[in-house]
Design a protein that fits this description.
The structure is a single chain. By secondary structure, this protein is of the alpha/beta class. It is 43% helix and 19% strand. The chain is built from 11 helices and 10 strands. Strand 2 and strand 3 form a beta hairpin. The chain is globular and about 65 Å long. 47% of the residues are buried. The structure holds 5'-O-[(R)-(carboxyoxy)(hydroxy)phosphoryl]adenosine and zinc ion. The site of 5'-O-[(R)-(carboxyoxy)(hydroxy)phosphoryl]adenosine has 19 residues, from helix 5 and helix 6.
Length: 339
């Protein structure tokens, strides 16, 4: 029997609905909320309102693209957390309504697990166990993945996430929110000429808040001498900041791979769309004899396709959610795995 699922993602500022038939995405509609650009970051209440507005049009678009009728859907998958409570509640309430109306089960998905599971939307999938670096706007995690939806935290950021570092430093540089892809684009014609102190953190953890402070002081000094310093050096500044973040990510990733003897390596989450990270990981793969797994760009930033594939493996095991589940702002992955 072909499994046909509908998945809903609403944890932050993207309303997304996907339809998956037998492990293949038929539609993955993403409605990105533009309102947050105006405020330089996500205002939770605005996000919830926008999800309310976009949910049904996004569903209609997904059904039309997939050429599927709601009656063909066998389960409704939804992000339960982590994320903004108000935003998650909109998605969960909509999912529960659909599951009740269609009389089909509900499947709850952890957004962070789903980022990792986005690797299973590729034709070439990683074998178990593999190491995954999840780099999003809210999280930076190193995970040992031992099965579909089974993963152990090896290390994580102690303060800002990598995506957050891109966004906050981008703001200092006068770039719109979210700044990650702007920095990526501008860095292509810049050189990493400026060097910043990189935090050294114990174990397999990360810290990015020091970099933001170091860039802030650097800019304040330079702007005293030349008020046009940022505009005159924007591309080199972007390349330098990007290089600092990517270097930090890759040093600890390499350490984790060696420590846990893992050679199948994946990256996932919004920052895995970064072109410099993608090329750097390829060159690390050649040096260290790794096999690399990277999501297609469409599945790097938040999307319901990854929620659907995560739910697909849960459906196969009949892991259905209770109808009383509520949203979780924090939703941790399994505790730290000791070597
Ligand atoms: O996974 P995601 O869509 O949302 C969360 O779960 O947080 O990640 C969003 C993050 C933002 O911080 C954004 O700036 C960053 O991913 N991002 C990038 C790029 N595209 C998105 N960072 C660097 N380079 C990119 N090309
Ligand atoms: Zn995400």
């Amino acid at each position: 029997m072909l499994i046909c699922l509908l998945a809903i993602e609403s944890s932050c500022d993207d309303t997304s609905i996907a339809i998956l038939k037998d492990g293949k995405v038929l539609a993955n509609i993403i409605s990105t909320q533009k309102i947050h650009e105006k405020y330089g970051g996500v205002v939770p209440e605005n996000a919830s309102r926008q999800h309310m507005e976009s949910m049904i049009p996004t569903l209609r678009e997904a059904l039309a693209k997939a050429q599927i009728n709601l009656t063909e859907i066998q389960a409704i998958a939804v992000t339960r957390g982590p994320g903004l409570i108000g935003a998650l509640v909109v998605g969960l309430a909509f999912a529960k309504g659909l599951s009740l109306a269609l009389n089909i089960p509900l499947i709850e998905v952890n957004h962070l697990e789903a980022h990792v599971m986005s690797l299973f939307l590729n034709d070439r999938v990683p074998p178990f166990p593999f190491l995954c670096l999840t780099v999003s706007g809210g999280h930076t995690q190193l995970l040992k993945v031992t099965d579909h939806n089974t993963m152990y935290l090896l290390g994580q950021t102690l303060d800002d996430a990598a995506g957050e570092a891109f966004d906050k430093i981008g703001k200092l540089l006068g770039l719109p929110y979210p700044a990650g892809h702007h920095i990526d684009r501008l860095a292509k014609t810049g050189q990493p000429l400026f060097k910043f102190t990189l935090a050294k953190v114990a174990g397999l953890n990360y810290s990015f808040s020091g970099l933001k402070t170091s860039v802030l002081y650097f800019l304040q000094n330079k702007l005293k001498e030349n008020k046009n310093f940022i505009t005159e050096n924007l591309n080199d500044l972007c390349a330098s900041v990007q290089e600092a973040i990517i270097t930090m990510l890759c040093v600890t990733l390499t350490k984790a791979a060696k420590q846990f003897h893992l050679t199948h390596i994946g990256i996932a989450g919004g920052v895995s769309a970064n072109s410099r990270l993608r090329t750097k990981i390829q060159s690390l793969a050649e040096d260290n004899h790794w096999n690399i797994y990277i999501p297609q760009l469409e599945y790097c930033t938040d999307n319901a396709g990854m929620i659907a594939i995560s739910a697909y493996y849960k459906f196969k095991k009949s892991e259905f959610a209770d109808e009383k589940i509520t949203a979780l702002a924090r939703y941790t992955i399994s505790p730290i795995l000791q070597e």
